[in-house]
């Protein structure tokens, strides 16, 4: 029974002395959109390559749509947009999409795929005449031309500006409405927050969190207090009520606290000389740093 699109169980992969993945486990449910989130070198691309059968794990089991990665890919039920991948010169976008649709046995019509990827108006252009965001939508069109049940996107918006990223994700959302599962690797925290049902946070090849974006933010907990002090003393600041972490750059102080009211009160009464105080909720960036460092220390 195929309850899960991806079962990634206790998977390890080394490159020489580097452990790219270290007993990594996560699942992706049918119809779910899951972000693999982590800093450079966290192991995201390695995980994607293994799920596509492009590499083999040293240890562990990977099941994709109820079978092995290579069988799942061979069945045509998996689509992928990888980090590298040129587009042919001299052909129009319509020609490129027609080729992709043909290779997948005509599971989707050319016009449908162009529409899905927001390329209808650009169908007569050549790849060299497109912006980075538009070219990425062509790669996306190729990835979905076989009507995949599972779609992998490896850092799909890495070179795109904010507007192109927004347009790209609007296209992905539309395409995923058909019930496909989507796994995307990203180090853009706001992307994971906005577009994923669930986020698997990787750090040094290990899963440090696996939860909804809001649960991950809650896990890191607390809020951030920023201020400027004449002579910040890390020991005194760490001793303030609620403070769990202190970062100091020159006179700029950043405190992570689980009791904002008392921290701020004591900052004014026992430390004094506080300027430019600002309190913010913990964002995904703080959550990621906190989760990664917590696990690294364990
Ligand atoms: N072919 C390879 N040979 C040697 N080391 C590799 C190879 N591929 C990946 N690594 C190493 O494995 C670790 C994980 O790399 P990976 O590319 O999976 O990370 P990532 O999270 O995708 O990073 P990025 O966001 O930079 O793409 C890194 O330390 C990387 O240097």
UniProtKB/TrEMBL annotation:
<dbReference type="InterPro" id="IPR003593">
    <property type="entry name" value="AAA+_ATPase"/>
</dbReference>
<dbReference type="GO" id="GO:0005524">
    <property type="term" value="F:ATP binding"/>
</dbReference>
<dbReference type="InterPro" id="IPR027417">
    <property type="entry name" value="P-loop_NTPase"/>
</dbReference>
<keyword id="KW-0067">ATP-binding</keyword>
<dbReference type="Pfam" id="PF00005">
    <property type="entry name" value="ABC_tran"/>
</dbReference>
<protein>
    <submittedName>
        <fullName>ABC transporter ATP-binding protein</fullName>
    </submittedName>
</protein>
<feature type="domain" description="ABC transporter">
    <location>
        <begin position="6"/>
        <end position="229"/>
    </location>
</feature>
<dbReference type="InterPro" id="IPR017871">
    <property type="entry name" value="ABC_transporter-like_CS"/>
</dbReference>
<keyword id="KW-0547">Nucleotide-binding</keyword>
<keyword id="KW-0046">Antibiotic resistance</keyword>
<dbReference type="InterPro" id="IPR050763">
    <property type="entry name" value="ABC_transporter_ATP-binding"/>
</dbReference>
<keyword id="KW-0813">Transport</keyword>
<dbReference type="InterPro" id="IPR003439">
    <property type="entry name" value="ABC_transporter-like_ATP-bd"/>
</dbReference>
